[in-house]
Design a protein that fits this description.
The protein has 172 residues and is α+β, with helices and mostly antiparallel strands. The protein has one domain. The protein is built from 4 helices and 7 strands; from the N terminus they run ββββαβαββαα. It has a 7-stranded mixed beta sheet, with helices on one face.
Length: 172
C-alpha cells in the first residue's frame, strides 16, 4: 500500500487514474448512459468511497461526482449481498437484479443502503470522463461547499448561480 504522504488532494484519487484499471473495483448501483452512483475501491490505498453524480456536460461524457469515504468492511458487505443474486464482474460490476421479484429487489436495496448510510461526510468532488472512466479532476471539499452550489438534481434547489463545472474549473 502507498503511504498517506503520497496521496494527492483527494486521497487515492489522481488525474491519471482510470476506474477500470486493476487497482480499482467499482460497483455501479445506478446507471443512466453511464454510472450515476455506486461504490469505488482502490487496492493501492486500501480505501473505498461512495459516489453520487452531481452534474454532467451536455454530451453526458464528463460527469461530476461527490465522494464519501466508506469503510472497506461495508464495501465487502455490499459485495456479499449482491453476490447472492448476481456474479461479480470486475473491475466494474453493475449487479443485475432485474429478474428478482420487486419485493426481493427492494429488500436487497434496503440492505445495501444500510451499509451506504455508514459513509463518512463528503470529502471531495471528482470529475471523470464517462467514455473511458478516466478521472480528470478532483477537489477536496467541505459540507459548506454544498450549501453554495446548485445541484443538478431537481429536488435540491439552491439560489446560487454557481454550478459544479465552475467549481471544478471545467468547461461544460
Amino acid at each position: 500500500m502507498k503511504s498517506k504522504d503520497e496521496k494527492p488532494d483527494c486521497g487515492w484519487l489522481s488525474t491519471s487514474a482510470k476506474l477500470d484499471a486493476p487497482d480499482f473495483t467499482v460497483i455501479v448501483q445506478d446507471f443512466y448512459d453511464g454510472p450515476t452512483e455506486g461504490v469505488v475501491g482502490c487496492y493501492g490505498y486500501g480505501v473505498t468511497y461512495k459516489f453520487e453524480m452531481l452534474d454532467w456536460d451536455d454530451k453526458q461524457d464528463i460527469r461530476i461526482f461527490r465522494t464519501s469515504p466508506l469503510s472497506y468492511k461495508y464495501f465487502a458487505e455490499i459485495v456479499k449481498v449482491y453476490s447472492q443474486y448476481d456474479q461479480p464482474r470486475w473491475p466494474v460490476w453493475m449487479p443485475n437484479l432485474s429478474k428478482l421479484p420487486k419485493s426481493l429487489r427492494e429488500d436487497v436495496y434496503r440492505k445495501v443502503d444500510l451499509f451506504l448510510d455508514e459513509a463518512e461526510p463528503i470529502s471531495c468532488i471528482v470529475a471523470w470522463q464517462n467514455s473511458d472512466l478516466q478521472l480528470i479532476k478532483c477537489k477536496s471539499t467541505t459540507d459548506a461547499t454544498f450549501r453554495n452550489v446548485k445541484d443538478w438534481l431537481p429536488w435540491e434547489n439552491s439560489t446560487s448561480n454557481t454550478d459544479w463545472f465552475s467549481l471544478m474549473n471545467l468547461t461544460r
